[in-house]
Design brief:
This is Thiamine pyrimidine synthase. This protein is of the alpha/beta class.
Length: 382
Amino acid sequence: MSHIFKKQLRKILFVAASTLLLVACNSSAPPSTTATSGDKPATSSSTATPVNNSDKKSKQDIRVQLPFLKQSTDAALIVAIEKGYFAEEGLNVTYERGFGNADTISKLGTGKYDIGFSDIYNAMEFNDKNPNDKIIAVGIYQNKGPYCILTFKENGIKTPADLVGKKIGAPIGDGARKLFPLFASEVKVSPDAVTWETMEPKLRETFLLQGKVDAVSGFYISIIPAMIKNGKTMDDLQIFYYDDFGLDFYGNGILVKQDFMTKNPEAIKSFLKAYFRGMQELVKDPSAALDLVISTDQSKLMDREAEKLRLKLGLERMYITPEVEAVGFGGVDPKRLEKSVAQTVTGFKLKPVTAADIFTDKFLPAKEQRMVPPVSDRKPLL
């Protein structure tokens, strides 16, 4: 019995010692995680992809407001975020949708956002009212303004002169509507010769389709895809592009408040470097960029064909122009910019300013870093 008891005791002591050793080993090991070295970090459609929390904290947060809902024409920003170009520059970039160019500038002016994507002409009007709190463009990503008047050929409006006596629909703050007096001057008609019908942006195309107005003003990158989606064809449309009638305006730019510009010069340089790198990627492979934008659409409501047409119009008429081929993405032709600024001063009845009061190129990357990729490197948009 004594022999059996001793044998059982040794067995119990062995099990206890093994248990204590296992506990000690586990307490000294690092805590386990659900990710492995091969896992992709969690991402969102509006946030750069940090590797971990400490890495995110080391980056400077940059808040961006878009001009409107996220669209395919925002592809350069999305590419730069999702491919980590901003993160490489030490930035954590987030964005939110906009509610029109004027609203984006207004919110940028309040300091809610660090960077706004909007046009310099609305910014000029803001600066006229807020001379001590100015907004400045640090780069232009749309070389041509998307302003137009659009109608149906069946309405019998074949030339701008045929707009006389007609009803044009647009939201009150619409850029093309605000610039209409300048357009009217160029085409030799009185700006008071038309009647304006005001509606919410989402109802603009509906009013035209229902015949409540004879034409609408707005951005052709918004109106044309909407019309095609509603069953119209390009042959059904009569479009008066403002830049075909003497208003050679720039489109949207990358805007900051003067105070932010003074305090964050390096962040602005880093943002522009990463953004125009994204633009180059967009031009090289627009189909991949389009698919990336759609993949980040959390609403799952994006129509790929409509967004494809929008991006096609942007690439052909706004992003890749002879001027951009010469000066690179983000730059301007000083004489052209000066002329459009002077036209805006006259049209908006503003205090005199120069191009230097609304635009600076001192934060742009070196020209060779933001050139348009050669044609041989560009894939078609499919």
